[in-house]
User: Fold these one by one.
Assistant:
Number 1:
Amino acid sequence: MASVDVPACPVCGELGVPILYGLPTRVAREAAAAGKVRLFGCVVPPEPDQWTCSQNHTWRAGDDETLIAAIDAAMGRG
Ligand SMILES: [Zn+2]
């Protein structure tokens, strides 16, 4: 599995967990249950945050490639 350079939370420094919007697939629900992604539901805000942390801060890293790689890794596709 490729390693992903997960960004740290700008507030508390915890490692980020990728946020998934939309109706989750079974794989997505399993990844969420394992704490590898966080499901934020079907309503995507105009400026969606990309990452969250264990303290529930959310932020955008402005790096879609890292986000996609992290989601792929969480889904077992990395
Ligand atoms: Zn945080």
Number 2:
Amino acid sequence: MRMADDDAIPRSIRDKANKEDLLLTNLIRLSVPFGNFYKNERGKIRKSLYWVDNDISSRELNISLPEGHLARAIKAIDGTWLIILKQSPLQGEDASIVAHELAHIVLDSEGFPFIETTLDYRGDPDFESLAFSLNNLLQDPLVIIKLQSYGFELYKEYYDECQEAISALKKVNGRPDGIFGIKLTIDYIKNLLENDLLHFYQYDPCREYSILFEQIFPFIDTRAKKLHKMIVDLDYHQMSNITSIYRNIIDFFNLAEFLQVKNQ
Ligand SMILES: [Zn+2]
């Protein structure tokens, strides 16, 4: 996600940011996967990174974590990063959530292409939200793969995310058209990709979500499965394939006027 306005993180925020070493001491001490992840990955982030609590970010920047979220990484226009935390100090159980956000920043630092709105639609809430979903579509599964390689247990986040998706789905009224329908399709494809990586849990809430989705929106299901196949066939694990995958998706939904792929 990008900050809506202006360049760098304001001084008022930088001054109130948490000190990273103090903030993460507990996680490094209590979680072996986090300790290893941090040791190997943190150095890949070359831009400045500030850790701020949600109440400060809401007050000073007017940016708040969405309901139910515990952390989120946000990039300012100049490439500086902010991680908003629901609360600090952090507990051992926060390790995978914090690592998840850091892993997004690592992907970005490695040059991962990202989707942004075209100039004419910059700041348009519908298209900004669609760009956000598209960025997460390929990044989130890759973040999961990275965290799995460090031995993180991801069930809780997976469970929460799928429960959230199920309740969001139950609130949809009628046939979702336009941008909303596209966003729903994208989020569903992300679920299919994540399901490929996390389906082995005994109780799989995402299976429940997929079944519900197929029942309620069979026409979206067909469209989504076609795109899911394209993403897997073109091998989204290779960063060199990401731009073509994104271009295909943008063409598929006729979104070229609104969204573009930016290579860093
Ligand atoms: Zn994510």
